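Session log. Operator J.P. requested a structure for one protein chain; no other inputs attached. Running the standard single-chain path with C-alpha cell output.
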Amino acid sequence: MKSDTSAKASRSVKRTVWNVARIIAVVVVLSFVAREFLFTNYIVYGKSMMPTIHDGERIIVNKFNYEINQPNRFDLIIFHANEESDYIKRVVGLPGDELYYEDDILYVNDEPISEDYLDYHREQYDGEPFTEDFTLEEVTSETVVPDGHVFVLGDNRQNSVDSRDIGFVPLEEIVGRVNMAFWPPKSVRFF
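Structure written below.
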C-alpha cells in the first residue's frame, strides 16, 4: 500500500514539475516574441527631447508592423543612428515633403505647421528664435525628403543631433514608435 501511495506521489510531483516547466517555456517564448517583434523598452540618454522626454526616463517602443507602415508627422521614433547608437527624435518631414524653418515656424509644403510641444522652450527663449532658420536644401542638399526616408528633429532644438546634422533617416532604420514613458513612476504618460 505504501509503495502505491509513493508511486502516486512521485507521478504527481513529476506532473507538477512538467506543468511548471511548460508554463515557464511558454512565458519565455512569448516574452521573446513580444520583445523581438511587438514592443521593447529603452532608457533615454541625453537632453535632445526635453521637456517631452527627460534624460534617464524609460520608454516603451511599439515595433509592431512599424517597418511596413509609414510614420506619421510628429511621431516620436527610435531609429538606428549608427552601429552603436539608437536615437529618439520627432518626425517632422515625410517622403515628398518640402520643408523649411523661418522665424521659428515650421513650413511643410509652404504651409505653416503648429508645433505646440515646443511652447515650453519658446517661452524660455523670451522672443528669441528657438529653432534657427534653415531650408532642407541647406542642411541636406535635397529639396524634398526622398522616398523611403524621414526628416527628424529633437524637441530641444538647441541641444539635438538630428537630421540637420546626420541627414535623412531611412525607414528601414526605424525601430518603432514611442508609446509611453513608464519610469520614474510619477512621470508615466502616453504619447
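Operator note: The mean pLDDT is 80.
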